[in-house]
Amino acid sequence: MTLTDRQYALLQRLSRAPDTALAALSQEMDLAPQTIRQDLNALTPLFRRYGIECSIEDGRLHLAGKHNLELLLRESRAALAFSVQKKILLILLLEQKYITLQEIADVLYLSRSKIDKELPALLKEYPQEIRSRRHYGLSWCGTWSQRFRCFVQLLEPYIRQMDFSGSLRKFNEIHFPILRYITEEQIQTAQKVLETVGQNELFTLTDASQRQLFLQLLLLQRMQAVAADAMPVMPDVPEFFRLAENDELWQLTDRIDREFSLFASTLEKSYFYYVLLSLPKVYQEPGMAPVQETEPVIHRILEELLQLYAIDLRTDTELIRGLKQHIYAVILRRDQIDPPFLDEDSAEDLRRQYPLAMELAATAANRIGLLFHYTVPTNEIPLLALHFQLALERRKTAASKIRCCVVCHFGMAASNLICGRIEQSYPELMVAATYSYQEFCSLQQYDFDVVLSTETLPACGVPVIYISLGKNRWEEEQIGRFVQEYRVGHTLKPLIENAVILHIHADTADDAIRQIGGWLEQHGCVQSGYTGSVLQREQISPTELKYIAVPHGNPQLVNATTLVIGRLDEPLRWCEETISTIFLFACTQQTVEDKNNVFSSFFRKLAEPSTEQAIHNLIACGDDEYRRRLSDRMVD
Q1: Exposed (0-12), middle (13-18) or buried (19+): which is 199, by Cβ within 10 Å?
Q2: Is the pTM of this model over 0.90?
Q3: DSSP code string of 483-550
Q4: 335 φ, ψ to 5°?
Q5: Most buried one in 139, 354, 399, 427, CB count within 10 A?
Q6: Which of 234, 212, 193, 194 is CA-nearest to residue 339?
Q7: Mean pLDDT score of the chain, rounded to an integer?
């Protein structure tokens, strides 16, 4: 079966929160409950194929076998419906000449009137790239790189794993007659070139990069077959990124040309070199390309992050090495080649799960743009954020961990086994001590946050989780729940209980920020200039979710850590969403340094769809009830 965009979006939403209220799902997706029911019914055969049963009871959606949702979602990308507009566009990308609307209709087995109906929207989306001439038809007149980029964007979602030939055959059967344009010989040549590239010792391409390169190779051969007269034009890149035709990568490109007679001109050969150089890689030899030239850029970025967020990453060599290669590729490919495919839902998940890393990445992207006069695409930012999240994970110290003790009556060997398992499985925990039952009972005071015990203990005033020698699912759930509740209870609840609640009447997001910032400055919580830093931060990357916004500014300008909750008298347009509540979290530099997980925990909890919906439902509550119910929700 094929999936509509709406059905696929529904699957994406269910993968994040499989058990949810139908009314909340309806409101979030802006769909009638009956429409959602119809889509769920249509998806029933697909659900069953993956061992998933869907039911609605008391207005709530329940999924049995929900652990299979991620696999279903990943494998169903190839079943996404390929719209008529995409089919028309793909024909234009595969042709060099003008093609009449009737010829397009014949290829697609559609009526001429159907093509006429779809054409205006396509011309509106590509006003400069598609030329329409009366009596001649349509032709692609965009640049070489635009043609290749669009081709990859259209087909990559349908290439399953590394099964290139099989994926194209399936695409041909279900969506579009691609094999009318691409020959088996061209497919085999593209695969052989990929094998040759894969055997080199200079770098290893990611899976997504291999798919992109395969599709670029197909289109290159197709353009040569139809006597393309449009030649590739090298993008305008900084001087130190110019092609060095005497390096090892150029030698690899030259060998591929000799072996496969792939390039019709030196310019095509140079373009292929550029593609290889700029595609994301799993591994890359430091000397393969002038990545060292990016080191001053990296240091400027890390200095700025230290000033803005009081987070010092300047000595993290792993981060610096990863950023060198990534930022080199970002600047090099610019808007000529897309970064690895990352669907909007995955990007949103990263934004909600790793908010601080996304903050750092957005700031880095802004600095890159200022230095190189280039706006980094928004789909690059989540990929940059992965480097920063790893760096933040490396910064976690024992002081930020939850202290636990292990009580075991099986002896030292068993205690050591449990301790090793706990610290390996739960990085948030640090085993501070181990005791026998008798030793524990003789303690006068407890210098830990939780007890993990194999033996029933008397009441001690400290939470106790009973465990066994062997790891089990119940134990995992108990410890995971405790860690979450501990983080929330020790960071978020006190914040909310002491939060300032303001009623805001504003026409714009900037106006709302100025009102909250003005209150903070008037009461000595922040210094002059803090409001400006919040506004500047919003320009880099807006902080709105669906119903709420979480702006923040430079911690160096904060005198006292303060949470201000701005309750809007009327919903306010904030970038792309309409929000009803503002949570402005002003953290001091000391708070960021000592408890850098506070902001992430706070944002991550707010970003849960169920929490956000619950907060939205509190609009009519008075301030006291609002604070109480918000506190209950955040520690739930």
Answers
A1: exposed
A2: no
A3: HHHHHIIIIIHHHHHT-EEEEE--SSHHHHHHHHHHHHHHTTSB-TTHHHHHHHHHHHS--B-SSEE-
A4: -100, 20
A5: 354
A6: 212
A7: 84
